[in-house]
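Shipment paperwork, digital attachment
Item: protein structure file
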Amino acid sequence: MMSENKQQDGLEVYIHPDADFVFREVFGVYVGAGEVVIEFGNYQRIDSRKVVISDRIVMTINSAYKLMQHMEDALQQAQAKMQELLKQNS
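Attachment content:
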C-alpha cells in the first residue's frame, strides 16, 4: 500500500503505509471535563447481544468538535452524490 500525503486545516498530513484499517460496528461517546472519549467495538459472533470494545480514542473537546464538523460535511457530500446517482438511474 502506498503512503499518502494531504492537506488538512493548513497542516501537511502523512498517512503511514502501515496504518491500521479496521472495521467497527459499535461506538460509544463519553464527554468529561476537557476531553471526549470515543470507544469502538464489534458484536461478538457467538452472542450478538454482547459487544467487545477494541479501541478507545481520547481527544480534546476542540478536536471532537472538528471531527463532528468534518463527519457532517463528508456525510452531506456522500448523501448528495447518492441522490444524484439515484436520479441518473431513475
